[in-house]
Amino acid sequence: MAIINTWFVVINPTSGNGLGKRKWPKIEALLKQHQFNFDHYFTKDENDCKKIIQFAVNQGFKNFISVGGDGTLHNVVNGIMSQNIIATNLINVGVIPVGTGNDWIKTHKIPNNIEKAINIIKKGQTSLQDVGEIKLVKSNKKPVYFINLAGIGFDGYVVSKVYKYKHLGALAYLYGTLLGLFSFKNFLSKTTIGSEVIEAKTLMILVGLCQYSGGGMQLTKTPNTSDGLFDISIAKNIGKLDIIKNVLRLFNGSIVNHKKVSTYKNDMINIEITDNHKPYIQADGELIGKGDIEVKIIPKAFSYYY
């Protein structure tokens, strides 16, 4: 049966090293072939993406398609979460992946194939997942939302390096990891999870909702996208040699069993950096700043086609 709803399609032309722009004619033709009634927009940058989503919601759109990677989807979600016209769980998002890592779709088993991804959207089945909200303490910045994984420390540093090498595809994350080994310095942190306070020299702190990040890495233990809890990993003072020895464990998920990695489940986490060295913070593979953060969960606030 043909879809008769009106859709708003957001295309990031720079996703996947320009793949978004190159693939759009094929995607547009397929959407028309499958009788989607849609408007579309090419985003200029992340703020532009958020603004156009807010504008479209204000115009009455409730069904969106994100053409891009994890960063594009992240910006779409932030546009949805930062508007107050309609409940966020009533706005549905389909994904046509053309990005570098495409990590979020791995958890939800959405195929990389464009036509198969469109067929999933056309089926019209939606599900809900939790959303994380990050507040930068002592900052006037608005909250940042994420639906995959956020982190502070080494993973943020890797993200800062990946931008230069996105033409390598998923290998960019592995390259960024190896490159970061030579210059990243572990930092002092004080993390509060429930009634527990963890003070340590730290490699990175990860707050996860989905299973994969960084081009397929598995850095949290038992993530569940809709249980109302974050899956948290604190990697303490792991040295460079130890990271090199454990690179494969970053991808097969066994890194969470390392003796210097502690895991937790909670719906809130506070992270204070007690070091002059302030590490990068990333959310869904996008850099969002530096400093102390408060992270809380918003249960089942994001609706997606699967």
TrEMBL record:
Cofactor: Mg(2+)
PANTHER family attached to this UniProt entry: LIPID KINASE YEGS, SPHINGOSINE KINASE
SUPFAM superfamilies in the record: NAD kinase/diacylglycerol kinase-like
The protein's name in its UniProt record: Diacylglycerol kinase
Keyword Lipid metabolism (UniProt): yes
Gene Ontology cellular component list: plasma membrane
Keywords attached to this entry: ATP-binding, Kinase, Lipid biosynthesis, Lipid metabolism, Magnesium, Metal-binding, Nucleotide-binding, Phospholipid biosynthesis, Phospholipid metabolism, Transferase
Biological process annotations from GO: phospholipid biosynthetic process
InterPro entries registered for this protein in UniProt: ATP-NAD_kinase_N (IPR017438), Diacylglycerol/lipid_kinase (IPR005218), Diacylglycerol_kinase_cat_dom (IPR001206), Lipid_Phosphate_FormReg (IPR050187), NAD/diacylglycerol_kinase_sf (IPR016064), YegS/DAGK_C (IPR045540)
Any one GO molecular-function label of the UniProt entry: ATP binding
Domain DAGKc: 2-139
NCBIfam families cross-referenced by the UniProt entry: YegS/Rv2252/BmrU family lipid kinase
Pfam family of the protein (one): DAGK_cat
Organism this protein belongs to: Aquaticitalea lipolytica
